[in-house]
Amino acid sequence: MKRIRVLPLSAGFLLAFVLVAAACGGGGGGNPFGVESELVTDAAQADALAFAPDGRLFYAEHWTGNIRVMTADGELLEDPGELIAAARAVETVEARLRLRAWERYSARQDQRVPMGGFVGRVTYRGDLEPFWPWLAAGERVHVGKGATFGLGRYRLQLKGELGLSPA
Q1: Are 136 and 115 in a shared domain?
Q2: Whole-prediction pTM value?
Q3: Containing structural domain, residue 75
Q4: Distance CA 41, CA 61 (A)
């Protein structure tokens, strides 16, 4: 009969616990890593956090679902209405979309799971500058449900007034 040696594993967990406690300031002295935290908002129930390249923080309030925006300086903006108003000013010139349905097999659920989404082209006209960092990031990482399965992919093509040729 083989004996299992528990001591090294327990010692490893104990060492990890001590290191975490010390890093968090649990040792009574100062924080050896110099980590400081500061409460910059009363957003106690924030979900779906996302940082913009300019440092703004976007988050959804847990209970209401309202989108809130905080500046890089920690100032909570009253209403992201400017961004919403800018989005309303963008015109959809053409939308050639079709629904593409497909299924995948889920080993965890032991059944086929319906997937799908829209494929096609959409052309917008208007001031897209406020949205450009988000659009460019989404092009690289994909967006929405099923992104891990290859969904949510899009390609941006600039043309017209910007003086850029289509990609």
Answers
A1: yes
A2: 0.49
A3: 46-79
A4: 12
